[in-house]
Specification:
The complex is a heterodimer of chains A (200) and B (95). Chain A has 200 residues and is mainly beta. Chain A has 3 helices and 11 strands; from the N terminus they run E-E-E-H-E-E-H-E-E-E-E-E-E-H. The radius of gyration of chain A is 18 Å and the shape is globular. In chain B, 18% of the residues are buried. The chains are: A mainly beta (200), B mainly beta (95).
């Protein structure tokens, strides 16, 4: 008896060379998800702040922020809604640059955004060249629907940690849940360990 | 007599909760904490996406958060802190 397995022949490498975390599927477009309406803050009203457990809070206007050194980067991104997108191209200011000269004993950060969105992260996940405040995507200014004028970008964690419309980082001594984390999303959110919900 | 003798075990709330948490709540009316407007749940704005664990119900007048629901990990969690109150019609008393 001949057994033909349709699923076996010509099977694609579902991991895309090991770049697709468990439970994720690939997309070519860039899905738009948000927990509320898109804020439209004028650049003249925009600022970015480092606050909380710091010796001296720091604030940049848009003009000052855009005069900081920038980096271009290409990274894979992974959304908790199970889509992943490979080789996304961004330009932004490294969080290392924003934290230069900041004296703190804090170990955690609450990113806060227009629209009252927040998300918590360990400080060490934002430093060491692993996080940016991105203002351009694919060579063009970041569109409001994708978080423009600027969003946090922490590609090694699920994308809800990459807060859209980010306006600052509040440094904290103790971890506190952000918006989604309060209602049951994972406090850390590592896509490679499928940390979607608290308890995962 | 003090309140420790007057109050009941929490399980006694079962009847009220059963009246309140009916299977169909889209017709339930609620008052928004943010702006005070009253509307049916089904008439508000829902932000929800395919495969998303979380959903946010926002006031159609002020876009304030009324309710947040997260499904996943074998449970459903619901927060209603954006509502001053939620109202469902009381079932008719049996004849």
């Amino acid at each position: 008896m001949r057994i033909i397995s349709r699923g076996f022949r010509g099977r694609r490498d579902r991991t895309e060379g090991g770049r697709l975390p468990p439970g994720q599927y690939l997309v070519r477009d860039f899905p738009v998800l948000s927990a509320g309406p898109t804020p439209r803050t004028k650049l003249t009203d925009w600022s970015f702040s480092i606050t909380g457990e710091v010796d001296e809070p720091k604030t940049w206007t848009w003009e000052q922020f855009r005069s900081l050194p920038t980096e271009t980067l290409t990274r894979d991104i992974h959304c908790v809604t199970k889509w992943s997108k490979l080789d996304t191209a961004w330009e932004g200011v490294s969080v290392d640059t924003l934290l230069e000269g900041v004296e703190t004993a804090a170990e955690y950060v609450m990113a806060f955004s227009d629209g009252d969105y927040t998300t918590n992260l360990p400080l060490e996940d934002l430093t060491g060249g692993r996080a940016w405040v991105a203002f351009a995507y694919d060579g063009a200014p970041l569109e409001p629907q994708h978080g423009g004028p600027a969003r946090l970008l922490v590609p090694h964690l699920y994308l809800w940690k990459s807060a859209k419309w980010v306006r600052g980082l509040r440094l904290m001594n103790d971890d506190e849940p952000g918006f989604w984390e309060t209602y049951g999303y994972h406090m850390y959110g590592d896509p490679w360990r499928e940390q979607r919900y608290s308890g995962d | 007599m003090d309140e420790t003798e007057l109050r009941l075990d929490g399980n006694a709330v079962a009847g009220i909760l059963q009246e309140m948490f009916v299977p169909e709540l889209t017709a339930a009316r609620g008052r928004c904490v943010g702006c005070g407007e009253v509307g049916e749940m089904g008439a508000q704005h829902l932000y929800m996406y395919p495969h998303a664990p979380g959903a946010v119900l926002r006031c159609r007048f002020c876009e304030g958060v009324l309710a947040v629901m997260v499904r996943g990990g074998g449970r459903v969690r619901m927060a209603l802190h954006g509502l001053v109150w939620l109202e469902v019609p009381q079932p008719a008393a049996p004849a």
